[in-house]
Amino acid sequence: MKKHLIFALLAYLFIACKEPINNSSVKVSTPAELEEAIANASPGSKIVMANGVWNDLQIRFVGKGTSNNPITLKAETPGEVIIQGKSDLKFGGEHLIVDGLYFKNGYSPSFSVIEFKIDENKANNCQVTNCVIEGFNKLQRNQTDLWVLFHGRNNTLDHCYIAGKSNRGPTVRVDLDGNESIKNYHQIVNNHFGPRPPKGGASAETIQIGTSSTSMTPSHTLVANNLFEHCNGEVEIISSKANYNEFRGNVFYKSEGSLVTRHGNYCTIDGNYFIGDEDNENIGGIRIIGTGHWITNNYLLNLKGQNFRSPLAVMNGIPKSSLNRYKQVTDVVVAHNSWINCKSPLQFGVGSNLSQKDVLPASEIRSAVPIRSTVANNLIYNTIGDESPVVAHDKIEGINFKNNIINNQGTTFNTLDGLKPISFEMNSLTENIMVPSNDIQEDVFVGFEFETIDKDLFGNSRADKNAVGAVVNKDVVDSKILDKSKYGTDWYSINNTTDTKTLSMVSQNDDLASKIAEADEGSIISLEAGTYQIEKSIPIDKKITIQSKDENNKATIIYSGGAETPAFEMNPKGELTLSNLALKGEDTQYAFASLKKNMSSLYNLKVSNCEISNFDYVLKGYKLSFSEYISFVGSTLKNCENGIELSAETDDKGDYNAENVTIENCQFDNIRKNVIDYYRGGYDESTVGGTLMVSNSTFSNCGAKEDNGILLNTYGIINVDISKNTFTNNPVKLVALLWGAKNNTHSDNEIRNSGKLVVEENLKLKLMY
Amino acid sequence: MKKHLIFALLAYLFIACKEPINNSSVKVSTPAELEEAIANASPGSKIVMANGVWNDLQIRFVGKGTSNNPITLKAETPGEVIIQGKSDLKFGGEHLIVDGLYFKNGYSPSFSVIEFKIDENKANNCQVTNCVIEGFNKLQRNQTDLWVLFHGRNNTLDHCYIAGKSNRGPTVRVDLDGNESIKNYHQIVNNHFGPRPPKGGASAETIQIGTSSTSMTPSHTLVANNLFEHCNGEVEIISSKANYNEFRGNVFYKSEGSLVTRHGNYCTIDGNYFIGDEDNENIGGIRIIGTGHWITNNYLLNLKGQNFRSPLAVMNGIPKSSLNRYKQVTDVVVAHNSWINCKSPLQFGVGSNLSQKDVLPASEIRSAVPIRSTVANNLIYNTIGDESPVVAHDKIEGINFKNNIINNQGTTFNTLDGLKPISFEMNSLTENIMVPSNDIQEDVFVGFEFETIDKDLFGNSRADKNAVGAVVNKDVVDSKILDKSKYGTDWYSINNTTDTKTLSMVSQNDDLASKIAEADEGSIISLEAGTYQIEKSIPIDKKITIQSKDENNKATIIYSGGAETPAFEMNPKGELTLSNLALKGEDTQYAFASLKKNMSSLYNLKVSNCEISNFDYVLKGYKLSFSEYISFVGSTLKNCENGIELSAETDDKGDYNAENVTIENCQFDNIRKNVIDYYRGGYDESTVGGTLMVSNSTFSNCGAKEDNGILLNTYGIINVDISKNTFTNNPVKLVALLWGAKNNTHSDNEIRNSGKLVVEENLKLKLMY
Q: Could you read off the pLDDT of A112-128 as tens digits, one per residue?
């Protein structure tokens, strides 16, 4: 044995000595020093960036480390090296590690914040770890970039926190164009993807792997053990567009979208958690397009989305689809998943649209139903019975349903061979995890290669005692999936804006504009009764509430600024609540408007119990501006030339200017044009956005000068509900023209001398693809 | 050591004993015995079929052998077990071997002759070896079958001889529909694929792997070390339609077609031989569609095909192509191949058809040029200089040309970066193999993963001394690629019909019909001068020549059979040469016609120095009949209602009735309709067939009753040449309407009082897909 040891040691030394190791550590404090250190680095080098703010820094990390001796670029103290301004980081070489940097207060001057390529020099075996990218948005939402852009092979993004992207482009993208970037085995693991607000249009995925044009490539990207929290950018949280990607052990927490196999085939979706919210229909699950995907051991809780956003959406394809549209689903396996308290969790033939053949070309008709697919050994549990746990939007003969079980609390549903109602109970292991209280005795179907499903959700072996559903063993320990210390960096703690609001009293003697400018994030400005004259637009770039001190004796704000300027100028990140006030113009101004450009983030606006009058526009959203929430509640809007205009996105590429618009208990009187004008253009079945609720409101003497003759213009908006309103003496042709095929509804409206409310089933829109 | 040995022996015995071995051999002589033996078989069983003819036998070989102890079904003597009549063979199970059977004189009653599946029971690890399938055709060419149909995984077809398929359907097909049949690693190795005649339309590949609808699947089929000899069925000899297939070491000998990566990606085409013929433009090479294929170490000699049939055709794709059309070429590597005496061997953007945008929909326009592809380290050698060794049908900026060399004997050509004219010599190693006489000193380009090209054409290592071209070492030994003992069975020898012709003298006293019926294959019937009266159609089902004994004193045959019956009835395999005769009808009969149905094989007809008169039709080809060669030389056709009609395929699916039609030195006089009527319908860019040559002939007083007003109607025929003819006093609108975009030409014709000869560039045809 001794001899062997000596030989092994000698061998080790021999191998080790072949490679010149550099264990030196060099600290750099300026860009020039950093550049020099990179140029001088050799395997084993450590470059330490000094704490502090690095402004306008473009790191070009070129080098060649080795597997045992990588070259490392790290923060002196993780999180205390701030990269801001026009900055980015690009890798070119092998075995390079970046550790502990913090990107904030800036944006990339290039197409990416972090990229695994410099010109044609693609990175391999490189790593970004323990870093943060936060709100590093380009100035306008139509300026595209990626925050992390993969090329090459075997690169890793791990233990990072990434949040707040609002401009166009997926947060993370894997590029596959070129043989150097296929079979990449990249790893995106243990990250925390924090909130991404809705973009109001396409191209806002959190992760996109490939594009349709490279969807034939073998990718083998692993996305595992990440937390996706409120990733609401668009309908796809993850868009897999290549072959052999794997999605394992991720937690999708209240994220408005789905994990979608959009293009490409043979992906594995195993052991993920999808956690919804009782009231949120935007939170989806898994949406399947294409061939050979295996969806196993997933746990889906409280998901209420439908159709494209169903807990499981197995789509119809377009026969012989072109490369960038919808491939037929074939050879898919959905096995050993659990759906707990989801609404109609299993939906097949989603996107079936034969009924739209008159408004769409044949190449857009999804009539190819799923075939040669197996749905087996799944478990559905409902605390309250579901009348349609399985929804067939088209024929489902191509699907082999085997040994699925449901506890539907006795509620009847359309029976289906292979879905058996049985009685079993579930225990809450934690708030979000329910596991069967007893071993479920139902037989397990053994399909082709089902022996490869050898572990359950918790990684326990299925060999000895297999069971239907995602969990085999009732005696499991809490895996703490929402413990945020398991994801992201070891230093960043999410900045929870305190809800303790500073209250600032303002009287007529004060300068209201200054008070607002000086106020802290989240402040409340409380106005004494009286009249406040404003002569210049007040910029709103933070969260702020302006209200009357005494709601029974409202203050009045009179705006006398320039024509076509707003009293309140909504800046990026501006969140204004206006409450119990009167706001008056002089007929030529706007009450509220976004910036005309550089809306790098969204704004929100809430108006309650106010009276707004004598403006040219009540609200004008300029092109490229976006608001997640706009609401007018209990307010009066009167004597204005225009009302609420959110219709500046006229390119018909699916973009729109606001996600949620709510009008409740309001009175609109003598609003002459664009009473409500809310627009989304471009045919894209997967867009699920734009929401307008108009209820319990009255509209009178409005629309006299409206060119298109429609009082509430909602063209192309997907979700519209108009109910319990009264329309009196509005000289228009139509109160509204609703889109029947989408989620457009109306009820209990009283219409007198105001035109008709018409529903058109299939709206003709411009094709986007 | 002794202990170890004992232990190993014990272990072996233990493992061996776990599996019940059956070394028994059972001989069977009847279908019932065979069925019983199969039912009783266990691992190791050998079932021996008795020599003799087995008629109408449907073998269902179900069983479960093991890797070490397969179940074998073998001929008592290989080749002496004849399977004939309505017979087929299907496998269902594991580790089953069939050895030595001979399928002939029959056809499959099912969709396949040999199939690796019985109902839903797919075969795995099964083998067909040392068998022959010969002329086992269904009765009509539109009746589809496959002769070997793969399903499941790890099945093998080896050392078989397979020839003579003329009905619709690839000879061998691999099916990939269903997860059980993907990643199949089937092996098609060491076979001899003998002649397959042209089918006259699509679906006559020798091997097809998958279909477009399963083209996203990983297939991994290996096609290696096979000989393809005169595989002329259609434009594709091998049609690869799935991913990761490998084509290695095959010999394509004078086969009219190409190896095509029609759908699917990442195939390997390595070390194959493509051997052409000086004068045959139908013999192609390698045609590339799709992504990521590697074409390396191939040797291509004497190939004269162009465009779709070029020695290397890299195609243009359709942007965002639908699943069944043409994908763009991307990420392809063409390296270390040798083209010797090929015409314009490297063609890029093949199929570019923007010029046809007026007659084709956008979804048929191939405008997507090859991108991200590398063409490097290839060698071109021309004994006679080639002015265009590289043809760019569209832009070639997407291709990286590196370190390619050409010896063009000083002939200038369009220069191209990356193709260097240098001087080097080649030696003939054998008739068909030329290797460099000296080591070529040119630098080798090292592209991405080029280190995987570690061997050359002959399997010699490239590690020590790499070189441009397919061969690294000048000192190589003949690998005898055309030694037929290397391919196919160990018992079958190809039946070369002797060219020693029996001469049979016939006088007016003899019964001509009986003499013809009795004649051997290849006989010559020589007629004394005089008149021969025939009252019934004479069937021609073999190779036979009928001629006058004295060409200066021609015999006359008068046919007085029923109206609309032919003097000579062309049966399957009928090959008639008629020479120096007069053939006369009584106005209502046909001189020649095919069978009306059951044309299970083609017929050929050659008429020289004859006078044919007073028929309703000279030649009538019925629907589903097909002739490879029809020629009229030095003959007179006169006073007939119709001439030569080969236009029965009116379904517009690309089929046609004859491959080669030649009219030379003939006189057509008073042929009133369908003077020549030759038709192919259906738009399919890859169809290259139908050939009509009309030269040095005269046409007078013809076409008076022709409805369409065209004398020589060649609608849809790809190759037409009309030259040096004289057209006089033919009352038609057009002599011919030629298709300019195809290979239709005319020259030196004299046209008097006979309408015009018009060329239309883009013919409007029915879309087939």
A: 999 999 999 999 999 99
Is the CB of residue B216 less than 8 Å away from at least one CB of chain A?
Answer: yes
Identify whether the C-beta of residue B244 lies closer than 8 Å to the C-beta of residue B261.
no
Asked if A240 reaches chain B (Cβ–Cβ under 8 Å), the answer is no
Confidence of residue B715 (pLDDT cuts 50, 70, 90): very high
Q: Is A400 exposed, middle or buried (0-12, 13-18, 19+ CB in 10 A)?
A: middle
Instruction: Give yes or no for residue A693 having a pLDDT over 70.
Output: yes
Return the domain boundaries, chain A.
296-494, 647-769
Nearest CB to A322 within list B218, B322, B333: B322
Tokens of A131: 């870093």
For residue A237 the two structure tokens come to 């949280």
Touching A: B residues 308-327, CB under 8 Å: 320-324, 327
Asked whether the beta carbons of A604 and A576 are under 8 A apart, the reply is yes
Cα(B137)–Cα(B143) distance, integer angstroms: 9
Nearest CA in chain A to B372: A178
Site from B180, B216, B446 to mutate, A interface, most A CB atoms within 10 angstroms = B216
- Helix, strand, coil shares, percent, chain B, to 5: 5, 40, 50
* Residue among A177, A327, A333 whose CB faces B372 most closely: A177
CA distances from B182 to A463, B154, B174, B223, B262 (A): 25, 10, 10, 16, 18
Average pLDDT, stretch B715-732? Answer: 96
The residues facing B671 across adjacent strands are B640
**Complex ipTM value:** 0.91
- Dig out the tokens for A672 from the structure: 């002459």
- Say what the pLDDT of residue A16 is: 45
Please enumerate, as own/partner, the contacts of B703-707 that have beta carbons within 8 Å and a separation of 24 or more. Answer: B703/B671, B703/B672, B703/B673, B703/B675, B703/B730, B703/B731, B703/B732, B704/B672, B704/B731, B705/B641, B705/B672, B705/B673, B706/B672, B706/B673, B706/B674, B706/B675, B706/B732, B707/B673
Location of structure tokens 């002959």: B458
Answer yes or no: do A178 and B449 touch at CB < 8 A.
Answer: no
Q: DSSP label at B635?
A: -
Q: Which residues of chain A lie closer than 8 angstroms to B320, CB-CB?
A: 212-213, 322-324
- Measured between CB atoms, does A177 come within 8 Å of chain B? yes
Q: What is the mean pLDDT of residues B387-400?
A: 98
Tokens 């704004």 correspond to what residue?
A603
- Give the residue from chain A lying closest to B180, CA to CA: A448
Asked if the C-beta of B448 comes within 8 angstroms of chain A's C-beta atoms, the answer is yes
Q: Do A331 and B372 touch (CB under 8 A)?
A: no
| B361 part of contact set with chain A, CB < 8 Å | no
Average pLDDT for A640-656: 95
CB contact under 8 A, B292 and A363: no
Is the Cβ–Cβ distance between B286 and B311 less than 8 Å?
A: yes
Side-chain half-sphere exposure of B671, counting CA atoms within 13 A: 29
